[in-house]
Amino acid sequence: MAKVIVWNLVTLEGFFESKEKWDLGFHGDAWGEELSALSSEFGRKAGLLVFGRVTYEGMKAYWTSAEEEGETKGFMNALPKLVASRSLTGSDWNNTTVTADIVAEITRRKAEAGKDIYVFGSAVLTESLLAAGLVDEIMIAVAPVTIGQGTPLFKPNAEKRHYALIAVRPLKNGTVILHYGVKPAV
Pick from 170, 179, 127, 181: which is nearest to 151 by CA? Predict the structure, then answer.
């Protein structure tokens, strides 16, 4: 059975983007050799990348036109991708499937033997998958920066949930990776 793992970078306040959509300037405060190596590790472990529509559009625009060459770009373009969307019906990004019923699709794919399923970005999608009990682990890189305003990764009106600490990994640049298991609802 595959695990569903949510991965995101956030500020100290818990914002995964600034007040403007796709303003991810703070990622430069977290990025470095260690996160680059972790990205490569994700690419080797992933069997499927999952995005909400907005994150998908940004990822597609970036990774299909990025000038940088390397392992991460190769993974992002080659790995199978699943997009949760009620407005899109298809995609021209390599190995991409679009679904309007993400809970059913993740439930089906999670039951299959194989590599892990990674959810990148996508706060609304993350909340939907958490509410459905489909997320196994959450990994958050907390960048050593505040930006004042932005979009929180976790929704303020979400139900109370408990998590089990798996690991804490400080990076040389002050970023801290928090790795939690999602405890089942009681």
Answer: 127
Q: How far is CA 39 from CA 92, 120, 159, in A?
A: 24, 11, 30
Report how far Cα 94 is from the mean position of its chain's Cα atoms: 19
- C-alpha angle 137-87-157 in degrees, rounded to nearest 5: 45
What pLDDT score was predicted for residue 71?
84
Structure confidence by residue, pLDDT tens digits, 19-36: 887 777 888 888 989 988
pLDDT tens digit sequence for 162-185: 999 999 999 999 999 999 999 876
Residues 32, 171: contact at Cβ < 8 Å? Answer: yes
The vertex-18 CA angle with 33 and 130, nearest 5°, equals 80
